[in-house]
Amino acid sequence: MGNSTIHTDQFFRNQAFIDQVNMAGPGLTVVINGKDTSILFANSLFEEYTGYPQSALEGMSFTSMIEPNYHSRVYAHLAEVRGQSPLHTGFVIYHLRNGQGQFRPFYAYASALVSGKNENVFRLFLLPDSSKWGMPFTSFETRELFLELFEAENFGTFEWMIGSEKVFWSDGVYRIYEIEQDGTDLTRSYVSRFIHPLDEKNVREGNAKALVDYSDVRLEYRIITGRKNIKTIQSLARVIRDSNGDAVKFVGSIRDVTAQRNIENNLKNKVEELHRSNRELEEFAYAASHDMLEPLRKITTFSDRLSEKYKFELVGDGAMYLSRVVASAENMRQLINGLLEFSKISQTSGTFEDVDLNSVILEVMNNWELKIEETGTAIRCIGLPVIEAVPSQMKQLFMNLIGNAIKFHKPGIPPIIKIDVTDIQEDELLQHQLQPVKKYYKIQVSDNGIGFEDQYAGRIFQVFQRLHGKSEYPGSGIGLAICKKILEYHNGVIYAENAEGSGARFVFIIPAKQ
Q1: pLDDT digits 0-9 by tens, 343-399
Q2: 3-state class of 237 per DSSP?
Q3: What are the residues facing 126 on neighbouring strands?
Q4: What tens digit of pLDDT does each residue of 19-62 get?
Q5: DSSP string, 144-168
Q6: Do residues 499 and 381 both lie within one domain?
Q7: Alpha carbon of 274 to those of 24, 278, 280, 281, 434: distances in Å?
Q8: Which of 1, 250, 377, 483 lies 20 to 30 Å from 229, alpha-carbon distance?
């Protein structure tokens, strides 16, 4: 045992064995002078990859084997690890040229072997990068940021060395900024020139905030590219700090969102144009309807005078024609009033305030008192909430819904109207494109009337849509359209459900607060 131990110890002290370890893999190993990156030693795998023997490699510059825009990155890399423990070194990704002039990405770990005033010797250990992402990264931090947050085209990664003010870009950033990779060293001041003047302050303040409170920098700003194109980019950056907590560098990722923002802006402009057009149409409808009331009053006035003055002379067809004129004038009056009410909803300047819907129901029942008594209607209301709304519009909403339930009752069967509040699930809010963070109430108005066919559930909220004849069920055909507009004004929704054989149910969802 003793002899074996001595023999093993001697074996590890054998210079040939040490040389063999130094020359072996698994990665490429090279020792360089930190002053000019001249190669002092290279292992067998480095010789094999580059195609140069040890004798030819000695004295050759390591930076001559990588792309020109990464030359300054090598010196910054060495400066980072100078005086640091080899166990705490990070890596940088370089493109290393082989003997055939082809470039391949490698992870390069660096550690200082000899570090002093007059001598700087560093060991680089390189492993091939075989990931599917190619080479959009300069270091581990930028790769992690990308994998965490970005998996899209038109992106790039960057590093900003805070002490030296040097900046390093991946190929993607050069493409976005439309700049050629000509070997020019990038600095913070040079890169800042591309930021749109109107966005400079926002970017500057965002970076300063991150240095103070350790937060990530999430910005969207415009740049003016090397070809004078204006682009919108999203940027995410993170501050990397050393063991003392001092900021060493920013690492980040950017994404070109110009096309996406252009589409959104075009859509926004079209929506605004649609709203403007709708407002103009509503204003026209209001003005036209208002102007039509005056000639209609004259028709009604002269019809009444004819009926009163010549009631004994007008018999037979004459009396029938006059009665039809009076009935048509009344129908026209209802239509015009309906249009006026419909167009006023979006033009109203009514103030939102706390409205007790129970009080609103009592007021509506009082207005429908004669109809309720005449038809024997029963209204059952279960504890309605207090919401922030326009009081007059809430009254109009329930006037229309309760009026409809009374009108469309089954012959010989007294109407029964139930008004209650039910629970609402988050998925239902999302289905109607409402914000789950808000509090909503779901209120149902159900009746035992004639109902409607399911295919008409959406159509009945359109203006002038009628499912029954005027002679059987008189009205303007605007009441439910007004209800829909009121709910839209209150940032809610309304829809109808047919309970076959049991009547209709109108459901509306409305925010507790606006």
Answers
A1: 677 665 568 999 999 999 999 999 899 899 999 999 998 889 999 999 988 998 999
A2: strand
A3: 28, 108
A4: 666 676 678 999 999 889 999 999 989 998 898 888 888 889 99
A5: HHHHHH--SSSEEEEEEETTTTEEE
A6: yes
A7: 72, 6, 10, 10, 21
A8: 250
Q: Are 224 and 230 in contact (CB under 8 A)?
A: yes
Last residue of a domain, one of 128, 157, 174: 128
Q: What is the CATH number of the domain that holds 208?
A: 3.30.450.20
Burial (CB < 10 A; 0-12, 13-18, 19+), residue 483, is: buried
Residue 55 CB partners (closer than 8 Å, separation 6+) = none
Nearest to 135 by CA among 84, 170, 85, 103: 170
How far is it, in rounded angstroms, from Cα 191 to Cα 206? 16
Does one domain contain both 353 and 490?
yes
Residue 2 lies in a domain: no
Q: Is the peptide bond before 26 cis (omega within 30 degrees of 0)?
A: yes
Instruction: Tell me, rounded to whole angstroms, the distance of Cα 71 from its chain centroid.
Output: 40
Res. 203 pLDDT band, cuts 50 70 90: very high
Separation between Cα atoms, residue 479 and residue 401, nearest integer Å? 8
Instruction: State which of 256, 287, 320 marks the end of a domain.
Output: 256
- C-alpha to C-alpha distance for 175 and 177, rounded to whole angstroms: 6
Tell me the C-alpha distance between 505 and 416, whole Å.
12
Residues 172 and 233 in one domain: yes
Partners of 240 in the β-ladder: 249
The angle that helices 317-347 and 479-489 make with each other, rounded to 10 degrees, is 10
Q: What angle do CA 300, 306, 311 make, to 5 degrees?
A: 130
Q: What is the CATH number of the domain that holds 303?
A: 1.10.287
Cβ proximity of 188 and 160 under 8 Å: yes
Q: Domain containing 410 — which CATH number?
A: 3.30.565.10
What does the pLDDT look like over 72-108, one tens digit per residue? 888 888 888 887 776 656 678 888 888 888 888 888 8
Counting residues of the chain whose pLDDT is more than 70, the rounded percentage is 80
HEC secondary structure over 400-444: HHHHHHHHCCCCCCCCEEEEEEECCCHHHHHHCCCCCCCCEEEEE
Provide the token pair at 294: 């005056």
Helix axes 15-23, 2-13, angle to 10 degrees: 60
**The domain containing residue 320 runs over which residues?**
269-347
Helix 391-407 vs helix 357-367: crossing angle, to nearest 10: 50
**Tokens matching residue 80:** 């980072």
Residues 161 and 124 in one domain: no
Neighbours of 357 (CB within 10 A): 23
What does residue 82 show for φ and ψ, rounded to 5 degrees? -60, 125
DSSP character string of 98-122: -TTS-EEEEEEEEEEEEESSS-EEE
pTM here is 0.43
Distances in whole angstroms, Cα of residue 181 to Cα of each of 65, 229, 432, 486: 16, 18, 50, 60
